[in-house]
Amino acid sequence: MRGGPSVLGIVLAGGEGKRLMPLTADRAKPAVTFGGTYRLVDFVLSNLVNGDILRICVLTQYKSHSLDRHVTTTWRMSSLLGNYVTPVPAQQRLGPRWYLGSADAILQSLNLVQDEQPDYIAVFGADHVYRMDPRQMLRQHIDSGAGVTVAGIRVPRTEASGFGVIMPGGDGSQVDSFLEKPANPPGLPGDPDRVFASMGNYMFTTKALIDALQQDADDPHSVHDMGGSILPALTEKGQAQLYDFGGNRVPGEPVREQGYWRDVGTLDSYYEAHMDLISDPPVFSLDNRQWPIYTHPGQLPPARFCAGGIASESIVSPGCVIRGQVTRSVLSPGVVVSPGAVVQGAVLHDNVRVGRGAVVRGAVLDKNVEVPAGATIGVNGDRDKELYTVSPGGVISLGKGRRVL
């Protein structure tokens, strides 16, 4: 931050994303397309850059080619000012092994910290959809004198088993304990049906992080994970503070979007987050010129609507050609919908082709999928389950380049 403390951003982007298969069969989860023209990693990078954290390392590992390429070609900062966003692949700096966990990923990349010598380190996850001003979290962290501040969001207790749960002390800020995906945690004082879930975003004082990583590396029983190892260790020492994301305010953000955060780690949550974009008014809007989400714009012509083609309650990206009927859907660049085709409640990635008279409902189709003339998806549930991936919530998904039968 110019004129303020030095902050290095570290984005953890090495996750495999098994629960988001088949979308992650050929790419890392942060590289998955979202909202038509974006990648999931664009949200965390936009939040950090908008918040004046302008030196950022993106730690990658699993099938990282498309992610590395996107970060390299899209996120070009001013080298004149010493700013950068750079992908950092696993380098085996500590021996012939890959990352053992998110904490080990940072441990193996401590040369980045030693080069920058920052006062503070923002360690953020790479695959969530939200807007956040990290400067507000940083100010609280500095004022508290804590070793780590963890961002938390209130979620129903019934959803707690999917998250790390932060148990605050009597003052509401000190973290008393951290429970990893508990089945039945106690509720919050005054709000017994909710808990604080960890967002996977941490603000560290540099020395506290380095000391914790080195101690964790010497523990043979550790899982070497930020949420499962580092945060509990600092909590036991009384060095962990909670930052309530519900109080974060982003310029240009309407009241209805305040506190919006989506973990899109499953097909159902990924699909539901897209439906949030196209509701009227949107639960989460991609249009905020005071806090934009950045991405590579591509070099495509505007979308075309021809021969009676229509689209309603939808996002239609550049390069699309619509000759059929599209409703409540999100279309990435280059999608073609042929005459007589019907696309309803679908998420279509780049260059999907929907043939004449075909029907696509309640589905997520990865890039280059071809739906032949007259084919159907989302019409015969039993047939769909036999041929394709179907989520617990009923979302049908086809992987990259798949041809519909």
What does this structure look like?
It is a single chain. With 405 residues, the protein is α/β, with parallel strands linked by helices. The chain has two domains: 7-268, Spore Coat Polysaccharide Biosynthesis Protein SpsA, Chain A, CATH 3.90.550; 298-398, UDP N-Acetylglucosamine Acyltransferase, domain 1. It has helices spanning 41-50, 65-74, 102-107, 110-116, 134-144, 206-217, 226-236, 267-278, 381-387, and strands at residues 7-12, 33-34, 38-39, 55-60, 84-89, 120-125, 128-130, 148-156, 164-168, 175-180, 194-205, 240-244, 261-263, 304-305, 310-312, 315-316, 321-322, 325-327, 330-331, 336-337, 342-344, 347-348, 353-354, 359-361, 363-365, 370-371, 376-377, 389-390, 396-398. Helix 6 (206-217) packs across helix 7 (226-236). The longest helix has 12 residues, at 206-217. The termini are far apart. The model has no long low-confidence stretch (mean pLDDT 91).
Strand content: 25-35%
Which CATH architecture of the largest domain would you pick?
Alpha-Beta Complex
- Class of the largest domain in CATH? Alpha Beta
Query: Mind telling me the CATH superfamily name of the largest domain?
Result: Spore Coat Polysaccharide Biosynthesis Protein SpsA, Chain A
Number of domains: 2
Summary?
The protein has 405 residues and is an alpha/beta fold. The chain has helices at residues 41-50, 65-74, 102-107, 110-116, 134-144, 206-217, 226-236, 267-278, 381-387; strands at residues 7-12, 33-34, 38-39, 55-60, 84-89, 120-125, 128-130, 148-156, 164-168, 175-180, 194-205, 240-244, 261-263, 304-305, 310-312, 315-316, 321-322, 325-327, 330-331, 336-337, 342-344, 347-348, 353-354, 359-361, 363-365, 370-371, 376-377, 389-390, 396-398.
